[in-house]
Write a structure and sequence with these properties.
150 residues; Alpha-Beta Plaits; 5 helices; 37% helix
C-alpha cells in the first residue's frame, strides 16, 4: 500500500487535472526535485493507484450528442444472470459506463448515441435483446453543469 501523504495527494490532484503535465512542472508545483517526483509518480503507477492516462473526448464533436443514463433491472438476481448481462453489455459500443448499483435496479449505464433515433434502436435491438433484462428506466441528459471527466 502506498503511503498517503501531502506530496502524493498533490501529485494525484494535479495529474487528475492534467495527466500530460511535464514531470519538471509537477515537481515544481509540489516542491520536490524532478527525480523524487518521478519516483513517486512511478510508485503510484506500479501500485495501481494510477490506473492509466486517457484522452477525454467531446461527445458532441464526435457525433454522440444524445446522452442518457439507463437503469437496468434483471429478471433474476443471480451471479450467473449478472455475469451474462455484463458480458452482453461489454460488446455495446454505445455503453460508455456500466455500474452495478443498489436500489430499485441492478445496473446504471451511461449511453451515448448520435441522436434519439439511434438511442431508440439501441434500446430495442441491444437492451431488448438481452434476455436477463426485465426493466429499463431512461434518464436523458439535458445539460451537464459539472462533469469531472472533462
Amino acid at each position: 500500500m502506498i503511503k498517503k501523504d501531502r506530496y502524493n495527494d498533490i501529485i494525484l490532484r494535479e495529474l487528475s487535472l492534467n495527466g500530460r503535465i511535464a514531470n519538471s512542472e509537477l515537481a515544481e508545483k509540489i516542491g520536490l526535485s524532478p527525480s523524487a517526483c518521478l519516483r513517486r509518480v512511478q510508485e503510484l503507477e506500479s501500485s495501481g493507484v494510477i490506473k492509466g492516462y486517457r484522452a477525454i473526448l467531446d461527445s458532441e464533436l464526435i457525433g454522440n450528442s444524445f446522452i442518457a443514463y439507463v437503469g437496468i433491472g434483471l429478471n433474476e438476481h443471480s451471479i450467473e444472470s449478472q455475469l451474462a448481462f455484463e458480458q452482453a453489455i461489454k460488446l455495446a459500443v454505445e455503453v460508455k459506463e456500466c455500474h452495478n448499483v443498489t436500489g430499485s435496479f441492478e445496473y446504471l449505464l451511461r449511453i451515448e448515441t448520435k441522436d434519439i433515433k439511434s438511442f431508440k434502436l439501441f434500446h430495442a435491438d441491444i437492451l431488448g435483446g438481452i434476455s436477463q433484462v426485465s426493466a429499463i428506466t431512461t434518464h436523458v441528459v439535458m445539460d451537464s453543469p459539472k462533469d469531472v471527466r472533462t
